[in-house]
């Protein structure tokens, strides 16, 4: 089985880069190491069971004062990178009032069906095939940031969004122009759900309730700090809340490690809860496959650190949409070229473009993200097949090589 040991950067320059991105202070952990803080938190604060584990799954410990998330004097989480700059009031005003919206979503269903077809996922026609990937990996795009990943005997779901609107009310707010390829009732058995942050297009109360109603305590939820109470109020029992760089697993599947890794974003669901919950990406490290979910993010140097510690990844799911105008979106949403940089930084063998073609959340033309992605890949001299696009409901099987991490 591959070890998840981090790869140490060499030289003074690399060490300085590590300090800047908050990745310093690694020290070895032996087989008799205590369980990680994340495991203790999950066991204590969740009513879900947890498999016994002999040692810290990752072969290191992290200095908490350097690598953990940070809060301001009011206790709200902050982005520690110089690339973060929340839009000014004048920028927000221009975005809302003055900027021209170029998304141009067709009103004709026939045109949309031609340009962005919604396919019936394979698991509706052939449910017996779900989860049967051997040493490989299968990914299915269910729209926006919702992907179904099958790897190492587990079926994972990211940021489940099956509602018609990304809003607290289903009569107002951004409405999807491409419907979900399936309902929660049509999904195969899900083992784990990864939540990146609290925005309504990524954390949908209706979808959470439906998943919990169907799978109950058999479904393990992985969420960043600050979300446990909200999840439990929704009735979810098997919830694991993690800080950046903390890890845990699904009961009975100790060989697959789930690590909450950083991203550059922010959280808000109500007028008063700005950044009271953390945001993040997720690294899923199995014996045969490694998967990275970027969530929602602006570009920052932490992705290179994630790649050094856990890469290469067999698949990364990286956002490519909702990026214009740049003065409004740059800190919080990558554009297609920055998505390619993340692909390179995390050392992904292949990536799939997500966070586009479902909701009109920004002002780029609705079909531009894959076009701009293709152009960016050409500029970087990369094969277009390694960063691919799926239709809604479409799946792709990936053959995973038997790598050995030293």
TrEMBL record:
Keywords: Acetylation, Endosome, Golgi apparatus, Hydrolase, Lipid degradation, Lipid metabolism, Membrane, Metal-binding, Nucleus, Phospholipid degradation, Phospholipid metabolism, Zinc. It catalyses: 1-O-(1Z-octadecenoyl)-2-(9Z-octadecenoyl)-sn-glycero-3-phospho-N-hexadecanoyl-ethanolamine + H2O = 1-O-(1Z-octadecenoyl)-2-(9Z-octadecenoyl)-sn-glycero-3-phosphate + N-hexadecanoylethanolamine + H(+); N-(5Z,8Z,11Z,14Z-eicosatetraenoyl)-1,2-di-(9Z-octadecenoyl)-sn-glycero-3-phosphoethanolamine + H2O = N-(5Z,8Z,11Z,14Z-eicosatetraenoyl)-ethanolamine + 1,2-di-(9Z-octadecenoyl)-sn-glycero-3-phosphate + H(+); N,1-dihexadecanoyl-2-(9Z,12Z-octadecadienoyl)-sn-glycero-3-phosphoethanolamine + H2O = 1-hexadecanoyl-2-(9Z,12Z-octadecadienoyl)-sn-glycero-3-phosphate + N-hexadecanoylethanolamine + H(+); N-hexanoyl-1-hexadecanoyl-2-(9Z,12Z-octadecadienoyl)-sn-glycero-3-phosphoethanolamine + H2O = N-hexanoyl ethanolamine + 1-hexadecanoyl-2-(9Z,12Z-octadecadienoyl)-sn-glycero-3-phosphate + H(+). Zn(2+) 2 binds at residues 201-202, 296, 355. Its main location: membrane. GO terms for biological process: N-acylethanolamine metabolic process; N-acylphosphatidylethanolamine metabolic process; phospholipid catabolic process. The keyword Zinc applies. Residues 1-53 are annotated as: Disordered. Its EC number is 3.1.4.54. GO terms for molecular function: N-acylphosphatidylethanolamine-specific phospholipase D activity; zinc ion binding. It is an enzyme of class 3 (hydrolase). Deoxycholate binds at residues 268, 272, 360. Its cofactor is Zn(2+). PANTHER family: N-ACYL-PHOSPHATIDYLETHANOLAMINE-HYDROLYZING PHOSPHOLIPASE D (PTHR15032). D-type phospholipase that hydrolyzes N-acyl-phosphatidylethanolamines (NAPEs) to produce bioactive N-acylethanolamines/fatty acid ethanolamides (NAEs/FAEs) and phosphatidic acid. Cleaves the terminal phosphodiester bond of diacyl- and alkenylacyl-NAPEs, primarily playing a role in the generation of long-chain saturated and monounsaturated NAEs in the brain. May control NAPE homeostasis in dopaminergic neuron membranes and regulate neuron survival, partly through RAC1 activation. This is N-acyl-phosphatidylethanolamine-hydrolyzing phospholipase D. It comes from Lepisosteus oculatus.
């Amino acid at each position: 089985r591959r070890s998840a040991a981090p790869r140490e950067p060499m030289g003074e320059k690399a060490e300085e880069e590590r300090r800047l991105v908050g990745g310093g202070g690694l020290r070895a952990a032996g087989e008799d190491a205590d369980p990680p803080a994340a495991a203790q938190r999950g066991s204590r604060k969740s009513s879900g069971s947890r498999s016994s584990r002999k040692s810290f799954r990752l072969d290191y410990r992290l200095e908490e004062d350097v690598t953990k998330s940070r809060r301001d004097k009011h206790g709200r989480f902050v982005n520690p990178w110089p690339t973060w700059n929340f839009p000014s009031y004048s920028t927000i005003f221009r975005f809302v009032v003055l900027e021209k919206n170029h998304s141009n979503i067709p009103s004709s269903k026939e045109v949309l069906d031609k340009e962005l077809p919604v396919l019936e996922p394979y698991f509706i026609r052939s449910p017996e095939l779900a989860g049967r990937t051997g040493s490989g990996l299968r990914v299915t795009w269910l729209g926006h940031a919702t992907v179904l990943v099958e790897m190492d005997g587990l079926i994972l779901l990211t940021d489940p969004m099956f509602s018609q609107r990304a809003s607290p009310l289903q009569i107002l707010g951004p409405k999807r122009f491409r419907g979900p390829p399936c309902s929660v009732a049509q999904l195969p058995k899900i083992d784990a759900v990864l939540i990146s942050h609290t925005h309504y297009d990524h954390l949908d109360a209706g979808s959470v309730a439906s998943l919990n109603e169907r799978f109950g305590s058999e479904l393990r939820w992985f969420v960043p700090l600050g979300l446990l109470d909200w999840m439990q109020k929704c009735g979810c029992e098997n919830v694991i809340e993690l800080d950046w760089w903390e890890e845990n697993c699904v009961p009975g599947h100790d060989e697959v490690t789930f690590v909450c890794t950083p991203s550059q974003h922010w959280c808000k669901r109500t007028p008063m809860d700005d950044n009271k919950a953390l945001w993040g990406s997720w690294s899923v490290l199995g014996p045969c496959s490694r998967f990275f979910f970027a969530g929602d993010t602006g570009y920052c140097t932490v992705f290179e650190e994630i790649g050094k510690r856990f890469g290469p990844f067999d698949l990364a799911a990286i956002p490519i949409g909702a990026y214009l105008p740049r003065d409004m979106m740059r800190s919080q949403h990558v554009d297609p070229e920055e998505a390619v940089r993340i692909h390179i930084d995390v050392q992904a063998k292949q990536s799939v473009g997500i966070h586009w073609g479902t909701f009109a959340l920004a002002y780029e033309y609705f079909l531009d993200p894959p076009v701009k992605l293709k152009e960016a890949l050409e500029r970087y001299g990369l094969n277009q097949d390694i960063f691919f696009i799926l239709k809604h409901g479409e799946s792709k099987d990936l053959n995973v090589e038997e790598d050995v991490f030293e």
